[in-house]
Amino acid sequence: MSKVYADKIEPRESTTDVTIGTSTNTVTLTGNDLRANTVKDSGGNTLWTSDGSGNLSSVNSGLAGNLKLLTTQTASGASSVSFTSDIDDTYDVYIFKFINIHPITDVQPFSFQVNASGQTGFNETITSTFWDVDHTEGDVTGGPQYETGDDQAQGTGYQRLARGVGNLNDEAMSGELYLFAPSSTTYVKHFYSRTAEYMGSSRIIDNFIAGYINTTAAITEIDFKFDSGNIDSGTIKLYGISKS
């Protein structure tokens, strides 16, 4: 076995590649790291590119996983947050993640509604269920209990995802909503949600919501808002889960 000691190995021409090993070899780096801004496979396909500071781009889809962040909206005194694009037949499942949604007005339910393709007004027909459990800071527990005032039976109003979020500086709501196959023109559109809210009475409420949007038309838009008052702050992220 021979050894080559060098500070730098370069090709003799800028268009010539330096090849280390062959397709039948294993190249081992002992006690060192391999540094490259662009990494490709043997077919010349880019796996990822770094900017030299650890930030990746051009990540190959085979490495990206099946959960894709599509868009992020941050509210600041908004009356509602609407997603009017990105909901199509690209993905089978769409997930909305709510991060510290804070109301201007105290003790406000947080809700959603949708539009079918070509429709306006966010008033599609919904049938739903709403369960919750709660625990106060004084160690008083409640539930599980069914909330008859927060479900819908062929209703066209906004569907509640939280019952009464507080507006003090440390109070907010977080959670997620799953929407299944919104582009289907055969089936109704199922959804379920789980949220955790700091209710405006010093308690945590764990909410479980499920239902269906009773239309076979494709759902293309969704809107989130509090029953009264604006969304003071908070972030909503939209993800798609790939079909593969």
Number of strands: 15
| Average predicted confidence as pLDDT | 91
Q: Which architecture does the CATH hierarchy give at level 2?
A: Sandwich
- Radius of gyration from CA coordinates: 25 Å
Q: How is the biggest beta sheet arranged?
A: 8 strands, antiparallel
Structural class by sheet pairing and helices: mainly beta
Number of domains: 1
Strand content: over 45%
CATH class: Mainly Beta
CATH-defined topology: Jelly Rolls
Order of helices and strands: EEEEEEEEEEEEEEE
Low-confidence stretches: none
- Terminal Cα separation, in Å? 47 Å
Instruction: Output the strand order for the largest sheet.
Output: 4-15-6-11-12-13-8-9
| Outline | elongated
Quick recap:
The protein is mostly beta strands and 244 residues long. It has no helices and 15 strands.
Characterization of the model:
By secondary structure, the protein is mainly beta. It has one domain (67-241): Sandwich (Jelly Rolls). It is 0% helix and 47% strand. It has an 8-stranded antiparallel beta sheet with strand order 4-15-6-11-12-13-8-9, with no helix packed on it. A 4-stranded antiparallel beta sheet has the order 5-14-7-10, with no helix packed on it. Strands 1-2-3 form a 3-stranded antiparallel beta sheet, with no helix packed on it. The radius of gyration is 25 Å and the shape is elongated.
